[in-house]
Amino acid sequence: MAEPILEVSGLVKHYPLTRGVLFRRQVGAVKAVDGVDFTLGRGETLGVVGESGCGKSTVAKLLCSLERPTAGTIRFKGEDITRLSGKALKAVRRNIQMVFQDPYTSLNPRMTVGDIVGEPYDIHPEAAPKGDRRRRVRELLDVVGLDPEYVNRYPHQFSGGQRQRIGIARGLALRPEVIVADEPVSALDVSVQAQVINLLDRLQAEFDLSYVFIAHDLSLVRHIADRVAVMYLGRIVETGRESEIYDHPTHPYTQALLSAVPVPDPEAREHRERIILSGDVPSPTDVPSGCRFRTRCWKARERCAREVPALAVPEAFRAAPGPAAHPSACHFAADEQPGRRTESQLNGNGPG
């Protein structure tokens, strides 16, 4: 991996649940993020995937210092930014910018495009002299594929894809080193998604950017990520290079997610194998003991309820390094997978 630019260790974010009006008392906590570790190399794209509610967006807010962690550290180029405040924190925020999920609500409808893209210069005036801002805003619009003459238009005059390009231009205004993209294309049409992904690829090469790309669409993440981290209920359960995760998944949750990725070929779709999970995702206010996935896992045994599995290379794969030898938080990652069912069987057209 390239030189780390971000190092996250033991990251925790709990939101307290309180009860009472006059005398409020804490009765529990929402464990949105509960012990996350990962690194991001310079010039690398880390894809963070998982179901809604697994804590992906909370991780994004913590990385951008929009939320303070309950515990843990976030090191940017070796410096723990969770302990910073005032001018020191403001300087770091300039280097870690965010692209938001919804291009329809993340842009102020009362501001022109020029004002939206140039707004970061109001907060960080040292980044651009006042007399130079208009030129820089026009350059940023051109960089993301928009006509610089659009500076006086308003967000409602643009399509969803164009609005997201405006959001990306705003994120680039301060020349950050890290971009945290929180599901940046989930609100867009499929054809537009591809255009935005290609744009992000080009900008990464042009500006030497590092991305944390958050999404729930695994097929989309495969096209942009160098490494992938799979999250479940506030924790990372498997991480590795893109080819390792997609071609040799070892955690049962990752295997189930990948088996549900849509297949465009109808014939291949009928014969491909699926893993159907039972039950629902547990509440983050009352997580299971031991392995959090055990209540839905076909490999679960007594040990899974007693011990929290470490995110490490499974012992069975350590002696023979290969694509399966990547970190996975499962006690029985090397066990045989269950008898799967094809799409035809799931639809009642074949033997179950």
- The CATH H-level superfamily of the largest domain is P-loop containing nucleotide triphosphate hydrolases
Query: How many whole angstroms does the radius of gyration measure?
Result: 22 Å
* Structural class label: alpha/beta
Helix content: 25-40%
- Distance, first to last CA: 44 Å
Question: What is the typical, i.e. mean, pLDDT?
Answer: 89
CATH class of the largest domain: Alpha Beta
Strand content: 15-25%
Shape: globular
Tally of helical segments: 13
Compact summary:
This protein has 352 residues and is α/β, with parallel strands linked by helices. The chain has helices at 56-63, 86-95, 113-123, 133-143, 160-172, 190-207, 218-222, 242-247, 252-259, 266-271, 302-306, 315-318, 343-346, and strands at 4-19, 25-41, 45-49, 71-76, 79-80, 96-99, 178-182, 210-215, 227-232, 235-241, 273-274, 341-342.
Descriptive notes:
It is a single chain. With 352 residues, this protein is an alpha/beta fold. The chain has 2 domains: 185 residues, Rossmann fold (3-Layer(aba) Sandwich), CATH 3.40.50; 85 residues, no CATH class. The protein is built from 13 helices and 12 strands. A 6-stranded mixed beta sheet has the order 6-7-8-3-9-10, with helices on both faces. The protein has a 4-stranded antiparallel beta sheet with strand order 2-1-4-5. Strands 11-12 form a two-stranded antiparallel sheet. A hairpin with a 2-residue loop joins β4 and β5. The chain is globular, with a radius of gyration of 22 Å.
Looking at this protein, list some descriptive labels.
352 residues, alpha/beta, Rossmann fold, 2 domains, six-stranded mixed beta sheet, four-stranded antiparallel beta sheet, 13 helices, globular
